[in-house]
């Protein structure tokens, strides 16, 4: 290939379905890239197109499957360097020019710190490198990113680019008498009398350099792989189409992978349950609580209540024995996905007790991180299982273990073909739903009908999560950078900070030694923190939310292209630091509310069982970034505990008299605070925005299947009633918002 052909450095994205061989594709690509050479000018020798190929995964523990797959390809000794220890190991691999480096994304920010402050290196590493100059000048890199949907964090990806900057030519000093500096080491660059010392850079020069480094770099080629690209992933790594939409450079769709037999359809056998329950107040007093927060706490109280856990544990065990253990030649396993570590612990205790009481031979394994305290007891994964957590992946494959109970562990990246059924007791949505349920899609001899038993999510939520990834995944439009200036204007108008304070903080951040900056910056931020605390809770909430959106959006937009606005770079750096120092807004509901209520009744009912059909038409993703100035926080109201309980009983109780009014009022409130609807009305006349409004109302009404089955069935049987409800809700929406709407507080 000629040199001009090889100079393109546009990032390339590939969407490959989970279970369809993505690790093999990544390994094959990495080894193929090592064989590419440039066509040299006359009289020059050829050189490799990429001096190093770096495979990056976002998982903090390096993916063993990916590591093994890359290493199994035939390669000369020393070609591959797996970074499975520390950031210093990555630094040494870069310095040595290893051809293929496999590492985690989280190691790069530490490498940047070492490069900017070599004295911060541990002594052993500093001595090992003291005679070596880390010279990346003129080097070209290929980055292969696994799970790109979560590997594009603004600061972390900037750290990758900064660690690989081509102008870097750093000599690592040695200060021990036993390890003297190399004879040809340069003089102290900070010595003002040294004629060869580089000039001292002021903050403005450093800002300009940071802005330049944020954009796409000509010496770095990016190849990004994901089965579930988010909107940011498509815009950052995808190709822009003539109509302004973005899509992957290469696509292997979920539908194609299912039809060709590389993965199984995890939605073909989907069963949903709903819980019916009632609470009652156990004290004579009637204390007042924040209605919204108290309702959430009480719903969680029921969700994790021993009665609820016991009922669902019985359903799970009996289904496991009747419908799972005989599958895949008697080798099938199941996974229970829980909403929290505490719930996982309670499930493990309940399932173990039920298995023992019934004399069943099957056993469960639990997987969670850290330590959980519940009911005065302390629990760990190893303590509950009786063996080390490192043994879990192998133990679950052998009898008597049949059920893996997880709390955030093994929900993603877990590749076990024997996994046949998943029990879900956790809210799922979007990419997270696809990632989690896709644990079931691996093929195995005799495996043909994976099942999902869902206690929490409704069919429409799961369908909406999967449809954007079923066929071609497209982002409808790119991000508007002008949103950054809108947010800056809104933040400036709050008068919580001053321009002088931003300058003072960022000057210290850019020019002072790291230890000095860390000591001085908190006091420089204190005036803004004090002004913030003087404002009402709703103002604090709005400022924090807007600042957080600005920081996230700036980190993303500046990866796409250099954004020559030094004032935005300063606000970004200042905002990142300020967010860490802002105190929490408002007080939560006292957990003594749990002592004032009791569960009067609880019942789990099967709602439906069958396939979730996906629309074969393309379902575009839409950009998530909203504007500013239209957000109106939800105002908290305090109601007596008796009224809060009565409202919850109407929503979730077996006796649904009066619940229809509450459900429709909830729809009205949701529509008045829906971000997508608000955006549609700001950009279009009401008759055009009405389409978005009706679609959202339809989604909320579909949610009645969980909250109010009788109302749901009544509306579905009566299309005329459904239309009348939409008309009435539309008129109420216009009255409530003046047709402008307001996105919900986050």
| The CATH fourth-level homologous superfamily of the largest domain | P-loop containing nucleotide triphosphate hydrolases
Strand tally is: 23
| Low-pLDDT segments, ≥5 res | 1-10, 15-20, 127-132, 167-201, 627-635, 742-746
Helix content: 40-55%
> Largest sheet, described in full?
7 strands, parallel
User: Radius of gyration over alpha carbons?
Assistant: 29 Å
Q: In which order are the strands of the major sheet placed?
A: 3-4-2-6-8-1-11
How many separate helices? 29
Helical/strand content category: alpha/beta
Strand content: 15-25%
CATH fold assignment of the largest domain: Rossmann fold
Short structural summary:
The protein is α/β, with parallel strands linked by helices and 746 residues long.
Task: Tell me what you see in this structure.
- Helices cover 44% and strands 15% of the residues.
- It has 746 residues and is α/β, with parallel strands linked by helices.
- The protein has 4 domains: 249 residues, P-loop containing nucleotide triphosphate hydrolases (Rossmann fold, 3-Layer(aba) Sandwich), CATH 3.40.50; 206 residues, 3-Layer(aba) Sandwich (Rossmann fold); 100 residues, no CATH class; 91 residues.
- The protein is globular and about 85 Å long.
Entry keywords:
746 residues, alpha/beta, Rossmann fold, seven-stranded parallel sheet, seven-stranded mixed sheet, 29 helices, 44% helix, 15% strand, globular, disordered N terminus, disordered C terminus
